User: Fold Acyltransferase family protein from Streptomyces xantholiticus.
Amino acid sequence: MFHAAHGYERAPAPEVKGPETTPTNRAATALAPAPSGLKSASSTAPEAAGRDSYFDNAKYLAIVLVAVAHAWEPVMDGSRAARALYMVIYTFHMPAFIIVSGYFSRSYQGKPHQLRRLLTGIALPYVVFEVAYSLFVRYANDDPSHPISLLDPFYLTWFLAALFIWRLTTPLWRMVRWPMSIALAIGALAALTPDIGADLNLARVLQFLPFFVLGLCLKPEHFQLLRRRQVRLLTVPVIAGALLFAYWVAPRASLSWFYRSGSVQERGWPWYSGLVVVIALFGCALVLSAAFLALVPGRRAWFTALGAGTICGYLLHGFVIKAGDYWGVFESQAWLGGPLGLVVVTLCAGGMVTLLCSPPVRRVLRFVTEPEMKWAFRQDSAELGPRR
Assistant:
């Protein structure tokens, strides 16, 4: 799913200061952070506040896919084609989001100002929305016994908890010699460990970890390579092949593989064959993520500015989807499972998340997604030095 969400650098160059000190960039960092000083090769339009249109476009398009996939869940059971398309989207939409998040977390070194932003831009929204979703379930779903627990992320808040953990470990991944090999081993072991526990959705956090570490290892030229014309042309047969394969396997495949929230043993598979599926799914996610990022336009478009508000779209669209589920909207309208209904659901979900990413919504939620909270933190010596 961020996505869902501040200041990063060209590794291993010195830390980029622009977005680090710009309050308006904070919300985007929790869900694929806003870039600074990383202009794409084909981008010619002027960028506002040092932002790169390519990555803002990628964030917006990814969050639209997240919302559409969530909206399909209650109505797609009667459509094999919708289930196949859902599987393809779920294979790459969160991995792509996480790769971009890792890419823009490369400058994180655990400095005081970075820790403050980690707390205000990720930890605080997690606490607020975890409580808000829990209260929403209690009253909207008439479930007064639903617990409020910060250790058990509800629905989509898991991504904020995951990003908090991943970013804290960033200095370690930048220090070790074989980060991808280690991250893949950890992800595989997490998929083979039935008793890993549900706290902070740790099984999912560890299984998605390799995508974040991959983002840490990437450089600007890797994204420029993806956007070459030859690579873009290759995405057509890749996506077509993925759709055909998904359509063939859709009636037999368990969707739990794509959520990565449990072990292979819990799905009834032996560890050795389940490990093959885990590795294959990682490879498919990597290829489809590359195809998605290759197709993202690099120039400024009408939706580019919305990429700065993806944290709002990510955190708010869940209320709308869950409300439709709790209030029986999807069950009472059986026609939504048909071809026309799925088109309507897709358009409504895309329009909804577009509005939720808009600047007015972002301004309203700034107090929780991009708070300064200077009153809560001491000023470190590096900040006081220039003033003295």
About this structure: The two ends are 45 Å apart (CA to CA). The CA atoms of residues 324 and 330 lie 6 Å apart. The longest helix spans residues 112-140. Residues 19-387 form one domain.
